[in-house]
Amino acid sequence: MKNGDHLFLVDGSGFIFRAFHALPALTRKSDKLPVGAVSGFCNMLWKLLVDARNTEVGVTPTHFAVIFDYSSTTFRKAIYPEYKANRSAPPEDLIPQFGLIREATRAFNLPCIELEGYEADDIIATFARQAEAAGAEATIISSDKDLMQLVTERVHMYDAMKDKQISIPEVIEKWGVPPEKMIDLQALTGDSTDNVPGIPGIGPKTAAQLLETFGDLETLMERAHEIKQDKRRESIIAGRELVKISKQLVTLKTDTPVTEALDDLALEPQNGPKLVAFLKTMEFTTLTRRVAEATGTDAAEIEPADVPVVWDGARGPDLDKTDATPKAEKKATPSSPAAASPKTDAADEVADNATAMSQARAEFFATHPIDHSTYETVRDRSALERWVAMARETGIVAFDTETNSLDPMQAELAGFSLAVADNAASPRGDVTRACYVPVGHKSGHGDLLGGGLAENQIPVREALEILKGLLEDPSVLVIGQNIKYDWLVMKRHGIAISTFDDTMLMSYVLDGGGNTTHGMDALSERWLGHKPVPYKDVTGSGKGAVTFDLVDIDKAKTYAAEDADITLRLWQVLKPRLVAKGLTRVYERLERPLVDVLARMEERGISVDRQILSRLSGELAQSAARIEDEIYQLAGERFNIGSPKQLGDILFGKMGLPGASKTKTGQWSTSAQVLEELADSGLPLPRKIVDWRQLTKLKSTYTDALPGYIHPETRRVHTSYAMASTSTGRLSSSEPNLQNIPVRTAEGRKIRTAFIAEPGNLLVSADYSQIELRVLAHIAEIPQLKQAFADGIDIHAMTASEMFGVPVEGMPSDVRRRAKAINFGIIYGISAFGLANQLSIERSEAGEYIKKYFERFPGIKDYMEASKAKARENGYVETIFGRRIHYPEIKSSNPSVRAFNERASINAPIQGSAADIIRRAMVQIEDALETSGINARMLLQVHDELIFEAPENEAEKAIPIIREVMENAAMPAISMSVPLAVDARAAKNWDEAH
DNA sequence: ACGTACACCTA
DNA sequence: GTAGGTGTACGTC
After folding, report:
1. Which bases of chain B are under 7 A from a protein CB atom?
2. pTM flag (> 0.90)
3. Domain A607-715 has CATH 1.20.1060.10
4. What is the mean pLDDT of residues A472-480?
């Protein structure tokens, strides 16, 4: 771009709203799809493209772009959570038009630009300044005063509705200050539509006058005491903090990380047929004719375009779908986490401010503790409607369900609680109000069929209907603590929570690792200094425990409303901290989008064949009984084989076998390793114990326990995934744990044959091959490892060959086995002690191996030292996507504690990066399958493996899609220097699919 | 009834 | 040597 060029920047998002309200409502004839704003938009674009010279702009563009807001979560929201919080939901008729306007932009062959975390205005500011710097001119198609700060000699604005140019004189005329002082003016006046605070009582006139007198905002604030008018002086001095924040909010960023260069915005010739096809689809007859004529297109010959519409009349919109395209991510994601948060002064300032906000709130909460007496029980429709209205005012509501079960797949609703911020009471939003809405409490003295409903509760259907409107509104942010639970419960009650945040996950991202837990009680004590009412005080414990629906409503109110209140307060403290620490991206990319993905997996469950398990259980019982008899024979007495204490006494006390070792509590160790060694020396008894343990383990943990988890209605097994329980970012699975189903032995694998596809379907298993070693090769930059993975060579054989000088061809299996153990050892933060144990060799020999390994692969040693150093310096290490894992004990004076933390800090970036990669895959994969029209459902995750269920004739087609997503899951955030490989198979059961 | 130790299943 | 969860035995309250 050069002198004489002219860039047009259309504020697409601003235009949508303005056109919608200014132009007459218009619907598409064929299906009543509202298209008024789209029509106005198309007409405007066309006019600017072919006829701009005849408007007030007076010049023809050489470059052109349309800019959109990406989503409601921007850095401003992080600085000041109430920013734009009072925006109500977009009108129903406008919603389908958001997507259509983007489609229209593409049909006009114009770049459609958006960037996560930034508003359209920031992107516009960036391009305008770039154009100016290049010696060109820019015209911003908008009349929004927020953009007027950008106006200069070379940057203009244009109000397309009024055909009016806005340059420096127009700004001065309208606002009384030149464009460069618009920021100061807005900081003083605030903006009620965006909820920017400003100073109460100061409007544009006063602000302009003050700025005229003092010159600029900084001087004004310094010399505020000189202001003569008492009230004005006081309010300005009192509002200095808010002015600071306001200024940050209204200052547009001119250095957003846009991925398009100015030259990418050069105007392309119109594609007549493409545009005509779109306009025909919209049924804009006049414009279609005009465009067809101008581009020499025969409109009659053109088929209408296939335009996706997110609209089904009465139902709410799915805004995520319109926006969350892979393309959007590509644009928004820089190539490394370092680039994600460049350490500029501006970024530092944002972080400092966010920290200040978090601290200010924490202090406020410390002096304004939780007050149970303010909580309200909502017992009628109109009261609930009032609460919903209050929630809509700020667009932010904390929500919590109370049920009769910890299992979200079984839970029935007892009630729910809401908490909202009272902005009138405190502009910082930290005065909270909370209520409890009982809907399913029982009276307690019912008949045998269960108590009747307690009195004075809103009928559950009515309450849910009102609640649905709030929770499904995409413009209302629903805050939960472990919201996956509430998401599932509400889903089972017909409500799909739309836009949400989760305080548990925020805490996990901020403080993962260490011995930190992220449950609400712990968070409340940590951040609010408040100990919540213990659950057991409400329901009782032990034998006298009751389910929540039987709790007295008044008691329930205190507990439940407090939960919502705490959740809202936690959010207010934690949200700005995410920004301050630069962890918003981790939270928004790796945590939050996984919530509903996992919830759906849990909801689907997997089919388990009772008969197979029951038959296996019988077989195991018989075999175990036989071995049991033999054991008693050999031992000469009957005893409890399952008691390590009794067993140790028999083996090492009574029989005096050699090789005894002690556990840390001084008991004889009877571990498998000890028994194996005894067996190898020819004794029959230890082997039988090992065999007996294997059989009874399989029986009790799997064949006997699993059927108890089959859901009475779905007839499937629904595990529960914990998102915030591991230090590294892995998931964990419980009730039942489906991440430890046996696979290593033939006996154990039989359990897997009981995990089956529904009739007419297949299970598809897809697992990453050697993902952790690949991640290691990437992170530590080991040339030989990278080469081996690039060439698809057996990685353990390669390692053995390098270390022991044995050719890969015809390598003895034992040599390879040792190399494999070393490779795993490296991932685990190797020690000579551990490797010696694993390989049953001397510690000195293990030490030699390690030394040799480090000589051959010096980068590994460097990586390990760097990891430890980083943990010592920062207190945490990071995955390749920026997830932090904290090691507060890395400097412990206890050498074994220290060594343990060092090994863990070596392992965490490897294990954690692999965990992040599969998380990314899981977030993308459902959309990828749906887009491909394949009906495959993701059921399970086992750390490096995903299991799907698909109709027989679609399973094979699903495999390449799944593989594609998984193998490219690190992209585009990280470009790995090692390829990822995925093995996948379809079969009737999990054993054969794996 | 609850907590801890031990053993053993997974990646 | 890393990261998890569960079942049994056995101690304590």
Report:
1. 1-2, 5-11
2. no
3. yes
4. 95
